[in-house]
Each structure stands twice: as C-alpha cells, then as structure tokens.
Design brief:
The structure is a single chain. With about 150 residues, the protein is mainly α. It contains two helices and no strands. α1 runs antiparallel to α2. The chain is rod-shaped, with a radius of gyration of 35 Å.
C-alpha cells in the first residue's frame, strides 16, 4: 500500500461493480430458469402431439373404451401441465424484466460513479500540477534572488 487513503469514489465504484455483478448473476439465473421452462414446455407440446396422434390411431380402429379413456385422461393431464408451465413462463418473464431493469440501474450507477472518480482524479492531478508550478516558481524566485545578491 502507498500509505495514502483510498479515495471514496474508488471505493464506491468497487461497491457498485459488486452490485452489478450480483444483479447480472441473478439475471443469468432467471434466464436459465426461463430456458429450462421453455424446454419443458416444448417437451409437453411434443407429448401432446404424440399422444393425440396415438389416440386418433386407436379411435380409427375398433378399440377398447378403457384404453381410449386412459389416453384422454393422460392428454388432459398434459394440457394441465402445459397450462401451468405457461403461467410459470409468464411469472419468469416478469422476474426477467425486473432483473434486467436492476442490471440497467446498477450499470448506470457504476458508470456514474466511474465518471465521478475520473473527475476527482483529474481535479487531484490539476491540483498537483498547480502545486508543482508554484514550487518551481518559488524555486526560480529564490534562485533569482540568490543570483541577484551575488556581485
């Protein structure tokens, strides 16, 4: 460590970066859940098509009513699952929108703090330059005064 305290803007920028990473992580988790749910919904759609086709084949030939009833009952259960999956997707979409908004807010905060840290560093640099110029001028004046006293 250089012995100088860390400027507050750097600390706030680091904190904002941590918040941004956390929000991005939460967004990734929601997006992963959304992909999984969409995949599950796609599987249910395929099962519905498959079992509807099987039922149609059974109904096209002489069939046992118990067998056809079992297929119908299973198709109804698949429809119920499909409906619940659709509702879950809507909830996940809302959560996804909220997570995206939080990421945007965290990113804006981080950018704002980074700009403030940059401005503070520029101001500090300008102050150092002014101090150095004053020191150089003072040294030059001392040197001039010393040189003017000598015969």
């Amino acid at each position: 460590m250089s012995g100088q305290p860390t400027p507050v803007w750097e600390i706030l920028t680091v904190k904002a970066d941590k918040v941004l990473r956390r929000e991005k992580s939460q967004l990734d988790a929601v997006l992963h859940k959304q992909r999984d749910t969409q995949h599950r919904q796609h599987k249910l759609d395929n099962l519905l098509i498959e079992y509807s086709n099987r039922l149609n084949v059974i109904l096209a030939r002489p069939h046992n009513t118990l067998e056809a009833g079992s297929y119908r009952q299973f198709i109804v259960q698949l429809h119920n699952l499909r409906e619940r999956t659709g509702e879950e997707l809507l909830q996940i979409q809302e959560a996804c929108n909220g997570a995206k908004q939080k990421v945007l807010v965290a990113d804006q905060e981080k950018r704002k703090l980074a700009r403030l840290a940059e401005r503070a560093e520029e101001k500090l640099s300008q102050q150092r330059n002014i101090r150095e110029i004053k020191d150089i001028d003072a040294q030059a004046l001392i040197q001039f005064n010393l040189n003017s006293r000598m015969p």
